[in-house]
Amino acid sequence: MVLVAIPSTVIWSYFASGVVFAIGLVAIFLRGDWLKARGFDKLILFGPLFYAAPIAAFGTEHFTVTKAIMSIMPAWIPWHLFWVYFVGACFIAAALSLATGIQARLAASLLALTFFLIVVLMHAPGWAQHPQDRFALTFVLREISFSGGALALAASLTEQRHERGAHTLATIARYFVAVPVLFFSFEQFMHGDRVPGIPLEPVTPTWIYGHAIWTYLAAVVYAVAGTLLLIGKKTRAAATWLGLTVLFVELVVYLPIGVVERASLDNGLNYVMDTLMFCGAVLLLAGAMPRSQVIR
User: What domain count does the chain have?
Assistant: First the structure.
C-alpha cells in the first residue's frame, strides 16, 4: 500500500539510487577495500557511493519529470528535450561508473565539467538577475561544491606520473568546496531555523528532535573545517570531519523528512539526495587530500 501511494516518478528515482548504491557497496567488499582501510578511511570509502546514488536519482528524473527540467533551462539553449535526455543518460552512466570503478576518472572529470557548466549557464546568470536572493547564491555554490567533489575524485585517480596535474586539480577542488562551506556556515549561523547541511529555503520541521541545534552544530563545524580547507592546513582531517558532520545531519534531519515526504520529489527525495551528494563530494575531497594527514 505504501508503494501504491508513492508516485512512479519518485519510485523510479528511489530504485535507480538504490541499485547504484547496492552495486557500489558490493564492489567495495569484493575489491577488499573495506579490509584494507583503517580508521576514518573506511568512511572515505563511501564518498563515491554517496555521490553516485544521488546522481543516479537525478539522472532518472530527467526521464520521469522531463517537462519540469526543460522549463528551468535557459530559452537560448536549443534542443531542450535532447539535452535533458542526454544529460540524464550521462548521469546514470556516470553513477554506475563511480560505483563500479570502471572508467571512474573519465566519469568524474565529465561530471566536474558538467556541474561547472550548469553554474555558468544556468545558476550564475539566475543569481546575477537577483543578487539579493541568498538562495540563488546557495544554488550556485552548491553546484560548485558538486563540481569540486568530482574534480577531487578525478585528481585522486590520476596516475602518479602526472602528480603535478593531480595536485593542481585537488587544489582547485579544495577551493570549490571550501568557499561554499564557509558561506553555508555563515547562513546557518544567521538562520538557525532553516534546514542544516545545505541551507536552503525549507524550515526545519518542529517535530525533528533538537530542531535548530543541528543547524548551529553544522555551522560551527563548517566554520572550522572550511577555514582549514581554505588555508590548506590539516585538509584531509578537516574534510573527513566535515563529511561525517554532513552524514550525521543527513541521518538526523533529512532521513526523517524523506520518510515523511516519501511521496514527493521536491519536498522529500531531492533534499535527501542533495545532502547525501554534498556529503559524498566532501568525502571525495578528503580522499584526494595528502594521506599523511589521515586521522585515526
Answer: 1
